Amino acid sequence: MLVDTAVASMVVGKIRGGTFSSLGETPLKRVECIVASFAIETAVVALGFRGASFIPAVAPYAFFLGYALLLYSIWVNRHIRWMPLIGIGVLLNFAVILANGMRMPVSADMLSAVGMGHQVAAIESGKVLTYRLMGATTRLWQLGDIIPIGSPYPVHRVVSAGDVVMAIGVFLLIQREMLVRRGPRIRLGRRAGTLRRG
Q: In whole angstroms, what is the distance from residue 29 CA to residue 11 CA?
């Protein structure tokens, strides 16, 4: 969902006269923590599908570390407008995942409603390490994946309230960064005391 939102926001930003160069100048700190967070989840999920025997035992700790790195990177970048909103979305997801054994609870009914009923069996098998089906013992189910996104949207999925909040934050952040007008840079010339505008 975040990828879709980011692409849509960049398209809208371009139509509004924004520039990708301005977006590239976003003063992000600790980018390596963001990359590491997504790399950890991707690696764990991939190894889980391949049947690595040690993965189920280490997955909760790996996911916790991934979220910790992501939240840390958001905290150090809180000076960027709309980053705190993204952080709220991440915290909402982290809260429900932490309350349910480091797996996001998802509604089987909602999966079926958007034509993704085939994934129910995959989740029940335990191979999908990032999700668990909702049941009577699910905690904070209101924050789980219970919001269906179906037709006419081309990519059907079930998302959480945290996902929606993050998507809004990402959209607004990209809009601001693409449309911001940064003044000309001032640098020192070769001669002492000489200022040049670039």
A: 25
